[in-house]
């Protein structure tokens, strides 16, 4: 088994069992999850930032392929040299430990407080930002649009969701490092990579233009210029709108 695939690719799913033996010959790193998934994109962003080539199997949540490596069928799941893992935080931590010779996306291990702050960021983003942006605003808006609802009806229906989303975005704005340019200061971390996917989806709907978040807006403009962002944009919800 070679260490890395020559170039990152997304392999269409026909049947997971029929593909995996072939994929594992090609690459030691496999990412299972559709690009539309924000958490799958987080892991893909991290792999690109570390310069690691991988094969991506674009499974949707709860598909038979997704259930193969997650007992509830969630995505992403991840394999390195045949070692399979699910849950994005666990995957991110594994990538940091397994590829310590690559670009670091967390503070030095001995900096206990900085790592605690990183973990706080990831937890807050995963629990509150993701849910209030994606489930509270983005997906309800798109569902109502698909039903042919008027703009006024849509705004009325998601009003509470928008208010709850704005609450967490104000918290993010206040928590962002004053000096920047990244969430935790001068160094890109997993906090940036967990935060950018839901905000990328938000940016392409009208509610993404609401609110006054100068630090968050400046951070967003910097992150979307990174090669990892551009390489993981295709197939996302934002890319389809």
TrEMBL record:
Family annotation (InterPro entries): Glutathione-S-Trfase_C-like, Glutathione-S-Trfase_C_sf, Glutathione_S-Trfase, Glutathione_S-Trfase_N, Thioredoxin-like_sf
Listed PROSITE patterns: GST_CTER, GST_NTER
Domain GST C-terminal: 111-241
Biological process according to GO: glutathione metabolic process
Transferase as UniProt keyword: yes
Alphabetical UniProt keywords: Transferase
Short name of one Pfam family: GST_N_2
Ranges where the GST N-terminal domain occurs: 27-103
Gene Ontology terms, MF aspect: glutathione transferase activity
Subunit-level organization: Homodimer.
Protein name: Glutathione S-transferase
Species in which this protein is naturally found: Basidiobolus meristosporus CBS 931.73
């Amino acid at each position: 088994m070679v260490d890395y695939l020559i170039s990152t690719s997304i392999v269409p799913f026909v049947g997971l069992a029929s593909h995996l033996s072939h994929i594992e010959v090609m690459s030691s790193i496999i990412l299972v999850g559709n690009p539309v998934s924000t958490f799958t994109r987080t892991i893909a962003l991290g792999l690109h930032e570390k310069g690691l080539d991988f094969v991506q199997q674009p499974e949707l949540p709860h598909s038979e392929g997704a259930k193969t490596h997650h007992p509830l069928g969630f995505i992403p799941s991840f394999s390195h040299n045949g070692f399979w893992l699910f849950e994005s935080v666990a995957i991110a931590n594994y990538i940091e430990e397994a590829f310590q010779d690559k670009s670091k996306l967390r503070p030095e291990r001995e900096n206990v407080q900085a790592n605690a702050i990183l973990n706080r960021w990831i937890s807050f983003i995963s629990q509150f930002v993701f849910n209030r942006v994606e489930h509270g605003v983005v997906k309800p808006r798109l569902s109502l649009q698909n039903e042919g609802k008027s703009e006024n009806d849509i705004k009325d229906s998601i009003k509470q969701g928008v208010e709850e989303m704005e609450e967490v975005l104000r918290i993010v704005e206040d928590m962002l490092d004053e000096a920047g340019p990244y969430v935790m200061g001068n160094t890109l971390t997993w906090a940036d990579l967990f935060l950018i996917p839901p905000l990328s989806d938000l940016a392409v709907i009208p509610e993404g233009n609401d609110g006054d978040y100068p630090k968050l807006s400046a951070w967003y403009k910097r992150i979307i210029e990174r090669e990892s962002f551009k390489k993981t944009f295709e197939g996302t919800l934002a890319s389809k709108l």
